[in-house]
Amino acid sequence: MARIFQTPTMGEAHIRVAVVTERAQADLLVCRVSSWGQANGDARWFITREKQDATCWLFFTSIGMAQVKICFVDNQGEAGWQKLNPFKGRFG
Within 10 A of 77 (CB to CB), how many other CB atoms are there? Predict the structure, then answer.
């Protein structure tokens, strides 16, 4: 289950991510969900403001510094990994 916290400092982040606008650039297509119960796998994110509730702390950065490039999508069916990445399975 991917409960995401956006950390303001790179040093405490579990993963550095960059948001891209083109799906072809993305490693992972992400769909935001409105409840913890809907957040499953790496691609369906519930974003929380509470650090202690999160399963993964992310730092949003440039494409060059990112370990994972993501693109937000509206449909849960489209969400998922597009490319092989060593961080697969580490968001939950």
Answer: 7
Say what the pTM is: 0.94
Mind giving me the DSSP string for the chain?
-EEEEE-S-GGG-SEEEEE-S-GGG-SEEEEE-SSGGG--TTTEEEE-S-GGG-SEEEEE--TTT-SEEEEE-S-GGG-EE-S--TTTT---
Token pair 């303001």 is at which residue? Answer: 8
* Neighbouring-strand partners of residue 4: 47, 56
Handedness of CA 16, 21, 23, 24 (dihedral sign): negative
Q: What is the pLDDT along the chain (92 residues), one digit of tens a residue?
A: 799 999 999 999 999 999 999 999 999 999 999 998 899 899 999 999 999 999 999 999 999 999 999 999 999 999 999 999 999 999 98
